[in-house]
């Protein structure tokens, strides 16, 4: 494996098991805590909260305004309390991309688990200094005339990109649209294109 | 801390490698690390800033050569040892046991069978992300929207959230982000000492000089004491 995918050896797995067992004995970890984490992230049903908010914003201009100007209230429409999201809008004149150079901060509550590449040195080092080159590696070309805004998540504010609505978005209902919004689009390394046959 | 974690702008890491359809967790151990972090932070054993600084103090070669959740494991073990919760020797001994006997049982929790004791039980269900860093301001913001600022050319030995690539650089206050716990003190047991945080906008060429790509802006959320009037 390359330097971005280090092997995990027995020592690490044993050390985790050791820490887990010590914390269980000390009453500092609930016996079902690990299973609950697995269930929450592996058995996810349906699109991420962020995808649902984006889909609603594409279909409802008033919701879009609220999402951009008061995201806690807008996310509250979905029954979720999250006080620190900043939503940044892509336009023909501007493309946004999000990174955390210092450690990999990411809005888990809104966008699920971050992909491994987001957390590795290559993305964290290069997204701030050569974003167009990085985006081109993802297949997204942003010409020089279009401004790139890079958001480095250095505080507790978390960022989500509101991608431009794909052609044909108006034909889909909110749930179908939400299913098309990937975490890559919400990070800003992809746009949203409707898959053939989407309805 | 001018550590290896402060990766912004570094060269040499090559293309961004992606795993197609990667699973949420690459092994049960990753989920266990998440559960351990939430449980121990939820129990108030350490705060998020101490956690991050624990990771920042990893051996640099180990940091670069290990995965994200290995960073969490190392940082948590470091902080728990420093806090006297899990002794490093105790952890090593237990690790050896599980290496020799991978199928050994995890062990019974303290107190009633299947139920963690008191506060830990409640804490195990609480998710640290639900806690907020927002605090009431003690003073009005020093900087107005649109003000020109320069970031301090600082090199603190401890925890900070001003990356090296953005120190001693000129930017513009773009937005006020509210008042937040200050990591530089909170990570070192010196209190929350909340400060106003600003979204500061930098031109790409200010940060990267001639190497900058055209038409790039970069935004950082920075605490007031990181900033000087330009």
Care to describe what's here?
The complex is a heterodimer of chains A (199) and B (230). Chain A has 199 residues and is of the alpha/beta class. Chain A contains eleven helices and four strands. Chain A has helices at residues 10-25, 33-42, 49-59, 61-69, 71-76, 108-111, 116-119, 121-126, 131-137, 174-178, 183-187, and strands at 85-89, 94-99, 147-152, 158-162. In chain A, the strands form two sheets. Chain A has a two-stranded parallel sheet with strand order 1-4. In chain A, strands 2-3 form a two-stranded parallel sheet. In chain A, helix 3 packs across helix 4. In chain A, 52% of the residues are buried. Chain B is an alpha+beta fold and 230 residues long. Chain B folds into two domains: 28-127, Nitrile hydratase, beta subunit (Cyclin A, domain 1); 148-229, Roll (SH3 type barrels). Chain B has helices at residues 28-42, 48-56, 60-65, 68-82, 88-100, 118-125, 183-186, 204-208; strands at residues 148-151, 170-180, 195-203, 216-223, 227-229. In chain B, strands 4-3-2-1-5 form a five-stranded antiparallel beta sheet. The interface between A and B is large, with 82 and 100 residues.
């Amino acid at each position: 494996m390359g330097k971005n995918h280090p092997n995990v050896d027995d020592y690490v797995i044993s050390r985790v098991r050791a820490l887990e067992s010590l914390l269980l004995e000390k009453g500092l970890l609930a016996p079902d805590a690990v299973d609950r984490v697995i269930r929450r992230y592996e058995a996810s049903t349906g699109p991420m909260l962020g995808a649902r908010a984006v889909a609603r914003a594409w279909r409802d201009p008033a919701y879009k305004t609220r999402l951009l100007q008061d995201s806690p209230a807008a996310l509250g429409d979905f029954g979720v309390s999250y006080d620190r999201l900043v939503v940044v809008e892509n336009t023909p004149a501007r493309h946004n991309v999000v990174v955390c150079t210092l450690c990999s901060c990411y809005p888990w509550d809104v966008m699920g688990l971050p992909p491994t590449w987001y957390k590795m040195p290559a993305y964290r080092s290069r997204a701030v200094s050569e974003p167009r080159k990085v985006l081109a590696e993802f297949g997204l070309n942003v010409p020089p005339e279009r401004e790139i805004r890079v958001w480095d998540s250095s505080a507790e504010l978390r960022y989500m990109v509101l991608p431009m609505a794909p052609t044909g978005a108006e034909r889909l209902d909110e749930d179908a649209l939400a299913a098309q919004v990937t975490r890559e689009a919400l990070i800003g390394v992809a746009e949203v294109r409707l898959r053939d046959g989407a309805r | 801390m001018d550590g290896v974690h402060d990766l912004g702008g570094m060269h040499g890491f090559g293309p961004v490698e992606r795993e197609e359809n990667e699973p949420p967790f690459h092994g049960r151990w990753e989920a266990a690390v998440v559960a351990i972090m939430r449980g121990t932070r939820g129990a108030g054993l350490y705060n998020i800033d101490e956690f991050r600084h624990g990771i920042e103090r990893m051996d640099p070669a180990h940091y670069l050569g290990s995965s994200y959740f290995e960073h969490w494991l190392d940082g948590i073990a470091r902080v728990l040892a420093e806090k006297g919760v899990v002794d490093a020797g105790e952890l090593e001994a237990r690790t050896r046991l599980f290496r020799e006997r991978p199928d050994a049982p995890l062990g019974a929790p303290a107190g009633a069978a299947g139920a963690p004791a008191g506060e830990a039980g409640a804490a195990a269900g609480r998710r640290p992300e639900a806690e907020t860093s927002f605090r009431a301001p003690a003073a009005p913001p020093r900087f107005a929207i649109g003000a020109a600022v320069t970031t301090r050319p600082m090199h603190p030995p401890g925890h900070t959230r001003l990356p090296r690539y953005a120190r001693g650089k000129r930017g513009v206050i773009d937005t006020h982000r509210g008042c937040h716990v200050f990591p530089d003190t909170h990570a070192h047991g010196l209190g929350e000492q909340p400060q106003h945080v600003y979204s500061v906008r930098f031109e790409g060429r200010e940060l990267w000089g001639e190497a900058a790509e055209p038409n790039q802006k970069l935004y950082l959320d920075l605490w007031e004491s990181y900033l000087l009037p330009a």
